[in-house]
């Protein structure tokens, strides 16, 4: 689904998104049992009610948990802890080392967690910081506009909904937190597209763009013109471009370094978000996005914090 969440959505984004099939509990592998370091091997019996897992991935995660608890650890020690052959443990560690997830000490040949995890953790923390900074602003914006408000981040070539609020009088039990949306078909996505480096944008527009409705902009040059208008006015708009009867407005939220941390969007049915009201909602969304950016430490070009 899209970052421009449908108009009638739940009151809060606190609900946990649906768990993907590959995130299901352990099956063919062992369920963790408590040990000296809180992470040990798992019993050999499988649970008939659990979905299957990829055993090598499961073992790799247990390896990282052990290293997080112990620090420098040898191959033989890890093999005993996981109850696997030493050569299997070595292959796991070699693969993780190749990706920078673990590193090996030259003298002792022992392993510890690597700095690639810092980058991954920073990405998660950024989303959490954005959601926390935006929470009460989103609530106020939802009350002011009487519509759904969504916070999204860039996730590869899609946008990912990380927070959502609907305090309007138009609510049903639907929660799009955790869902992805197309960059060219959502207001949040177009707000990101408008500020991507030219080379990145060229690569995205080189691939065919899906038409979700007859209003979806799929012609690259037409989309480029739309992105230029977004940069000029500071916000993006979709008019039934993702779903018929759904309009949305989105503004970028800038981080302390001026990069775009995420987007703030307001979505609702097209019969409520008509042109005059869209402009009013856009002004409120710009103010709200600027306030969240200020909380993240963003300052304007002259060094001052952005006024809100």
Short description:
The chain has 308 residues and is an alpha+beta fold.
Description of the structure:
The chain has 308 residues and is of the alpha+beta class. It folds into two domains: 21-118, Arc Repressor Mutant, subunit A (Orthogonal Bundle); 122-295, Beta-Lactamase, CATH 3.30.450. The protein has eight helices and eight strands; from the N terminus they run αααββαβββαααβββα. β3 (148-155) and β4 form a beta hairpin. The longest helix is centred in the middle third of the chain and has 30 residues, at 116-145. The protein is elongated, with a radius of gyration of 23 Å.
Helices, strands, pairings?
Blueprint: H1 55-70, H2 75-82, H3 86-98, E1 102-104, E2 111-113, H4 116-145, E3 148-155, E4 158-165, E5 180-182, H5 187-193, H6 198-205, H7 220-233, E6 236-239, E7 246-254, E8 260-269, H8 275-295
Antiparallel strand pairs: 1-2, 3-4, 3-8, 4-5, 6-7, 7-8
Helix pairs in contact: 2-3, 4-8
Low-confidence stretches: 6-49, 302-308
Largest sheet: 6 strands, antiparallel
Number of strands: 8
Mean pLDDT: 81
What is the CA-CA span between the terminal residues?
31 Å
Classified in CATH, the superfamily of the largest domain is GAF domain
Radius of gyration: 23 Å
Query: Which percent band covers the strand fraction?
Result: 15-25%
């Amino acid at each position: 689904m899209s970052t421009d969440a449908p108009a009638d959505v739940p009151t809060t984004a606190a609900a946990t998104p649906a768990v993907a099939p590959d995130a299901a509990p352990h099956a063919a592998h062992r369920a963790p049992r408590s040990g000296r370091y809180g992470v040990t091997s798992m019993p050999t019996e499988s649970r008939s009610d659990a979905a299957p897992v990829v055993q090598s991935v499961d073992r790799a995660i247990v390896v990282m948990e052990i290293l997080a608890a112990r620090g420098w650890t040898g191959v033989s020690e890890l093999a005993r802890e996981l109850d696997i052959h030493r050569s299997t443990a070595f292959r796991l560690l070699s693969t993780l080392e190749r990706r920078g997830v673990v590193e090996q000490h030259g003298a002792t040949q022992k392993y510890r967690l690597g700095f690639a995890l810092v980058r991954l953790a920073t990405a998660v923390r950024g989303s959490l910081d954005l959601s926390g900074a935006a929470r009460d602003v989103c609530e106020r914006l939802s009350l002011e506009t009487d519509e759904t408000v969504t916070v999204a981040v860039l996730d590869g070539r899609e946008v990912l909904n990380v927070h959502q609020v609907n305090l309007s009088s138009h609510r049903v039990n639907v929660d799009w937190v955790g869902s992805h949306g197309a960059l060219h078909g959502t207001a949040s996505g177009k707000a990101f597209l408008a500020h991507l480096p030219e080379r990145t944008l060229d690569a995205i527009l080189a691939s065919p763009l899906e038409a979700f409705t007859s209003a979806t902009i799929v012609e690259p040059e037409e989309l480029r013109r739309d992105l230029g208008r977004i940069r000029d006015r500071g916000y993006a708009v979709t008019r039934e471009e993702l779903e018929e009867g759904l309009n949305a407005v989105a503004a970028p939220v800038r981080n302390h370094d001026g990069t775009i941390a995420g987007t703030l969007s307001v979505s609702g049915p097209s019969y409520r978000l008509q042109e005059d009201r869209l402009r009013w909602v856009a002004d409120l969304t710009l103010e709200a996005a600027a306030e969240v950016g200020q909380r993240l430490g963003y300052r304007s070009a002259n060094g001052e914090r952005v006024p809100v």
